[in-house]
Amino acid sequence: MQAGLIRTIALLLALLLGVLLPQAHAWGGAIKWIVATMLFITFLGLRPGRGMLGGGHVRLLAANVAMAFAAWGLGRLAGGRDVGLAAFFAGIAPTAAAAPVVMSFLGGRADFVAGAFLLSNLAVAALMPVLLPLVLGADTPGLAQRVLGSVALVVFLPVAAAWLAKKLHPGAAAWPGRLRNVMFGAWAMAMFLAMANASEYLHTHDVDHVVLAKIAAVTAVVCAANFVCGRVLAGRELAREGSQALGQKNTAFCIWIAITYASPLIALGPTCYVLWHNLWNSWQLHQAGRRDAKKCG
Length: 297
Known about the structure:
The protein has helices at about 5-20, 30-45, 55-80, 80-90, 100-105, 110-135, 145-170, 175-180, 180-205, 210-235, 240-245, 250-260, 270-295. The chain is built from 13 helices and no strands.
């Protein structure tokens, strides 16, 4: 069984366990520390340079923000405020830490996707204090300051810690490669806790199942649109890289933001996105494996 398929199955099991064990929501506060740890390890492996970022990355970042608001509008049209917010949190999520790894498996330029990861995660974290009050409403005094404090702790502190760690111990740059399985386990744990939060919310609140179906459907559309849009924006030579950078998202970050500042129901948006982008990744890895097998044959 291919690694991509195994990981997709593992994530599905984590989500299923979250549904079956809603009492695990009591540990939901650990999500932010899991996200911070994942980002710290990922930033250790990045070596920013002049050639790492370019105009293509700026276009993808602009599309990331634009797609989030397009998803918000589509969700509101399809099912009202909750569906719109769920779609927004799915759409605004930056590039996933695992996206450069997937691109390396696909035989593309992992450095381009790593540049998109660096820029989008820092930029989206910086924009969150401005964007959240816009979508959540004006009746949230002090929200921008609270969000700024939160993202500084979860995103900017790991960046500083990674820089310091590499300065004090240059060998730390090799840790991400050794800790790849640990990173995946941390991601699966974050998904488990997110689903436990959502499951507990659904058990204690009267939620329309039609709303849940609409969230799943809208996020599937958003996911497909991101992969297609990224392919177009990056140009012919970097089509796969652009598609992966915009389509594969750091959903754990937005799940934590949604749970903290909206509700576990809203967090189902980026949670559903996990399923959609991993199904597509599994298909891509399967196709790449078949091509490689033909070449070897």
